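Quick one:
INPUT:
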């Protein structure tokens, strides 16, 4: 809290909102899943490609994915992490536009795929599901807007500390060394999330490593001192 005001990272992290399937009544959820067919993806498989035509939506059952987008200048941004209960590709399916982002499996993924025509027909006959989908879209946009506003006032160092704390909370596993982040994100992916260059993030991680705040290996980070990260974030609201 900052003077009684809630900050974006206090309650709207990457994945701490209610996923789509959890918003549905049991009967609606079962009916929607029955419309599709099961599908599996291996780790690091590209599930959806940016700019491709929309043909289907995916409902995630197990496993986590990353959502990324590449700008015209080649810069790749990490937009979100999506996991069990989430829906992917619904925006393009409803608008008829090409996909706005690429989705990649961060681990083995189990999902249900629903053809676009069958999905839109289901929504036409299920107003409650349509309302829940609209609510999800609204919540995602609200979280994105809040994060953009809050992060405009932070340095890259502070943004990286916020991101690491979010991942500790949502994807941290306690080990003998410390709290290991279970999602293997690269330095480029961290850079895309905090709106910086890979070189800048590498320097900041080296600094944190030298201060024994984190241990870094290839696609692996162990947080040793989350209290130091909280102190870095606290500096931005002092």
């Amino acid at each position: 809290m900052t003077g009684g005001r809630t900050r974006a990272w206090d309650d709207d992290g990457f994945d701490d909102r209610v996923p789509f399937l959890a918003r549905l009544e049991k009967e609606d959820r079962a009916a929607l899943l029955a419309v599709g067919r099961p599908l599996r993806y291996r780790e690091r498989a590209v599930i959806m490609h940016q700019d491709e035509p929309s043909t289907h939506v995916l409902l995630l059952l197990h496993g986590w994915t990353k959502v990324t987008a590449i700008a015209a200048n080649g810069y790749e941004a990490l937009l979100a992490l999506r996991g069990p209960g989430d829906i992917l590709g619904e925006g393009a399916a409803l608008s008829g536009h090409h996909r706005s982002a690429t989705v990649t499996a961060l681990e083995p993924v189990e999902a249900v795929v629903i053809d676009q025509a069958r999905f839109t027909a289901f929504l036409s006959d299920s107003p409650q599901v349509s309302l829940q989908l609209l609510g999800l879209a609204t919540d995602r946009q609200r979280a994105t807007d809040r994060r953009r506003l809050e992060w405009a006032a932070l340095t890259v160092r502070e943004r990286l500390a916020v991101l690491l704390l979010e991942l500790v909370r949502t994807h941290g596993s306690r080990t003998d060394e410390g709290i290991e982040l279970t999602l293997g994100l690269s330095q480029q992916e961290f850079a895309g999330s905090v709106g910086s260059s890979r070189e800048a993030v590498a320097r900041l991680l080296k600094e944190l490593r030298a201060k024994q705040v984190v241990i870094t290996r290839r696609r692996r980070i162990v947080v040793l001192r989350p209290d130091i990260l909280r102190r870095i974030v606290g500096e931005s609201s002092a």
